[in-house]
Every structure is written in structure tokens, then in C-alpha cells.
Amino acid sequence: QVQLVESGGGSVQPGGSLRLSCAASGSIARINDMGWYRQAPGKQRELVAAITSGASTNYVESVKGRFTISRDNAKNTVYLQMNSLKPEDTALYYCNADISYYIGRTYYTNAYWGQGTQVTVSS
Predict the structure, then answer these.
(1) What digits encode the pLDDT tens for the residues 69-111?
(2) What are phi and psi of 40, to 5 degrees?
(3) Which residues lie below 8 Å from residue 121, measured CB to CB, with a gap of 6+?
(4) What residues contact residue 80 under an 8 Å CB cut-off, 6+ apart?
């Protein structure tokens, strides 16, 4: 069983910073792409940032220059550094990881989700 555990959310004023962490544990053969999504009430879940196993990154236009995604493969962890936060960044943030694992000699790949961590930006 694989589990993703998120931390680092909170409430900050506009212009503040937060760093989200997401650590994977369990029966892991390989972690492929990882990413951060967010969802505000009444809105669709949105991909905020993604990072491949080769460390290539992509960001939604609205966070470019403010957010940075990174990963520590030794710790099976992905991070999202969020600077210059705006009220429109307020959402429940979820990490996602594409993880491969073995059952016997059979190789599987599935997407896993963290439990969500709330980010609130207000004055």
C-alpha cells in the first residue's frame, strides 16, 4: 500500500509564503511524475505544478515566477514553495504521484493522491 502525506498548509496574509511537502511511503518501486493540484469550492481541480522524474517542471501561468516545485528522490518527497501569495491562491492543495510497484514479478503503475492541505490567503 502506498500513502502520500501532505503538510505545510496554513493561513497567511497576501504577499506571504508557504512551503508544502508531500512524502510518499509504502511499497514503491519507482516514483515517476509528481505534481500539485488545487481546488477551490465550486471550481474544478487545477494542475498547479508538475515535475518529472528527470526534474523537468511545468506551471500553470498564474503561478509562474511565484511558485517552485522540487523533489527529493532520496526522501520520496515533493515540495511546493509558494511566494507572493494572493487571495486567489486560496484552495485545498493536493499532491499527486505516479508510482510503480511490484506484486510478485508483475509491475504496476497507479496515480496516488494526498489527503489535501488547506491554503488560505487573506488580510
Answers:
(1) 999 999 999 999 999 999 999 999 999 999 999 989 999 999 9
(2) -100, 155
(3) 11, 12, 13, 14, 16, 85, 86, 87, 88, 89, 90
(4) 19, 20, 36, 48, 49, 67, 68, 69, 93, 95
- Beta-carbon contacts of 118 under 8 Å, excluding residues fewer than 6 positions away, are 9, 10, 92, 93
How do residues 12-70 score in pLDDT, each as one tens digit? 999 999 999 999 999 899 999 999 999 999 999 999 999 999 999 999 999 999 999 99
Q: What is the pLDDT of residue 1?
A: 80
Listed in sequence order, the residues at least 6 apart from 21 whose beta carbon sits closer than 8 Å to its beta carbon are: 6, 7, 8, 77, 78, 79
Distance, CA of 7 to CA of 41 (rounded, Å) = 20
Cell of 59: 506551471
* Contact yes or no for 36/96 (Cβ under 8 A): yes
